[in-house]
Amino acid sequence: MSFNFTFTSLEDVKQLRNLVDFMASQDLDYPSYDEWLQKTESQLERGEKQAILAFSEKRLVGDLVHQVCRDNGLGIIREIKNLRVHPDMGGRYFASFMLRQLYAECGEKYKGLLVDVRVNQKRTQDFFISQGFIPLMNIPLYEKNIDEVVMFKPLVKESEILRPKIKKIIQARSF
Known about the structure:
Shape: globular
CATH superfamily: Gcn5-related N-acetyltransferase (GNAT)
CATH architecture: 3-Layer(aba) Sandwich
Largest sheet: 7 strands, mixed
Strand content: 25-35%
Number of domains: 1
Structural class: alpha+beta
Radius of gyration: 16 Å
Helix content: 25-40%
Order of helices and strands: EHHEEEHEHEEH
Distance between the termini: 49 Å
Number of strands: 7
Oligomer: single chain
């Protein structure tokens, strides 16, 4: 079996359109997902969000969308807004590779990564834990009665001191 895998940053409008279509095909039951997707498209276009893309045979099969966490001056942290891999590409470690690429891009500039995962998405939570993320709290961020598990991955040793501050900021976002 031959393969041709490519990983790249978002480079042009054609890739952006392809990314938006890819994300639209799997909404994961989040409320107002279409609105979020429209907003994300323009934020990617303006450079407010960035993306790492995974291709197989020139077909988009994975993405990692991320941004600086802007809440209350926490610009030292990046937040993962979307990470997905096409189900046909599972088991090839695309998600792990895209995360490692993000770590490399963050370098010493960022102290950690933040992500939230639906409380019922145990497999996704387990994946992030396997990648060194630490669950901080369960809290409703998008819907009143459905919790998200907020997780943090320290990228440098001293980032552990940020955990209480991050919890406070996340609590302010909730319902």
